[in-house]
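Appendix B. Chain record.
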Amino acid sequence: MRRNAPRPAARVCLLTAALALTVPATAGPATAGAGPAPTARAAAAAVPQVRTVSLPVKGTFKGPSGNIAVTGTLDVSVVTVPDAAGGGTAQIISSLDDTSGTGAPGGGTYDLVGADRGSLPFSAAATTTLKIKPRLLLISPVVPPNPVVPPNPIRPVTVSVVLGSTGTIGAVTATVGDPGA
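C-alpha cells predicted for this chain:
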C-alpha cells in the first residue's frame, strides 16, 4: 500500500502542471480606472541606449611645426539617457588606441594619446547630430624622456553622433582635421 501512495500524488502534480501551461496567466485583476497605456516615448525614456565602436583614424592636421599625418584607432562609447518628454543627455567617451603621426616637413614622429568624455543634450527633434572634439595629447617619443609637445591638449579629431529623439544611436563617425576646410 505504501508503494501506491506516491502515484496519485504524482498524477495530481502532473495534471496541475499541465493545466498551468494551458491557462494563460494574468498580471493581476483588471481595474476600470487604470489609465492609458504608456506611450512608446515614455517606455523608451526608461531605457538608456549604449553603443561602442572602434573607428579608424586617418588624416592630417596642423601640428606645432607643420602638418602631422596621423593613423590609428579611436574607441568611442555613446550612452544616451532620454527624457520622458523627448530629448535627453548623451555622454560620448573617446579614447585613442595605437595612434601615431608623422610630421611634414622633417618626418618627426609623434604619439597621440588620451581619453575624453563629453556630456551633451539632444533635442526632441526627429534626429540630432552631436559633434565633439576630444582633448588629446601629442607626445614626441624621439626626445627622451618623451616630453609632451606644446601646444597641449590638442583637438585634431571630430566625433559625430546621430541620435533619434528617443535616444536611439545611429551613425558614429570620426574625422581628422577641420571637416569644414
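Further analysis of this model is presented in Appendix C.
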